[in-house]
Amino acid sequence: MLPTEDLRSGAAFARPRAADEPRFRAEARAILERVRAEGDAALLALTLEFDGASLETTRVPSEAIEVTRGALPPALREAIDAAAERLRELSAHQLPVEWYEERDGIRSGEVVRPLRRVGCYVPGGRAAYPSTVLMTCIPARAAGVEEVVVCTPPHPDGSLSAAVLYACAVAGATEVHAVGGAQAVAALAYGTESIAPVDRIVGPGNAWVTAAKAEVAADGLVAIDGLAGPTELVLVADATADPRAIAADLIAQAEHDPLAEATLVSWDEDLIEAARAALERRSKDASRSDVLAASLPRARALLVRDEDQAAEVADAIAPEHLQVITEDAHAFLKRVGSFGAAFLGPHTPVSLGDYGVGSNHVLPTLGTARFASGLRASDFVTVSSVVEATVEGLAAVAPGVVELARAEGLDGHADAVEVRLE
Length: 422
Known about the structure:
The protein contains 16 helices and 14 strands. The protein is of the alpha/beta class. Helix 6 links the parallel strand 5 and strand 6 (175-178). The radius of gyration is 25 Å and the shape is globular. 43% of the residues are buried.
């Protein structure tokens, strides 16, 4: 458990990559085409096939959602309410603002408009995820989106988790549908008799959901937040770290998914050995043993020369979650350019971000943190330019605009300026 790769000699380091599975794209494409052709009939048939649920409609009645307010233990309701409030406060900091500037007869600026309708995919299967409802719906509502649709797979009896439904109510979802998988993505992208198409689809899912999102994005009819791979953690630690906490953090990451990537990076051999021993002890009594049996063998330790090499390795991985437990975590973070969310110090487990403390948990994976950010309220708006010129302003900029237009062979562009000044 926790095999060590020694990188101190400068051995080549390659970021682990998910297996390329063309079959997921092919199978997702077939489902998309079926839903596009057959609509709700395909949704119901596929829900019976994949989830074992026989439904008359995918739509969850609003009264079934409201009744969950009294169906949950008070402590769980309070936890969902508190997480929702934290996410509303976080989202309020993430929105662009309209601005205008007037100079020499030209008034220009940008206006911000919310998307009309968005779809939030909430995974099911192994567990219920009310937190993902909050993470996807609340930024959309904070951005001013009027129609927020949640799709999530049902249990075999056709029901949905009461916690998920309560989170939908708290987060302001305007529709909830008991449908999952690539078929849910198809409905959100193309529309069916009961689900109108959306402008953007967000939220994590399994390999078929991810493949379906890639396919509909390629069609150009709908935007997506990104393509989610297995969840990732890079934990950088020095001799000040508690091996027991490291073991707990690695297990917390590994219990998400059989394909989870949990990596410890350190320049202290003794710490790695202590963490390995602690991991073996803690994993014996951990829950979700079926998931851990697959994911923990994928966990590893990387032994590096020093803090500088640790930063290089973390940057090369560009992880979804970067956890830093070192003597000066802030100084280390300045050396790393690419990560989805960072958790600094001995008292900041990634679990905090998973439940809305300072971060959204829909984050870039598979190294895409090099160029992508986590889900945020600004993902649910458009920013458009606005320009207005007076005759004096047009005259002032006309010579340069005409010169550029003629240089590019676009005489019509130049004429559109000059005709206004004749």
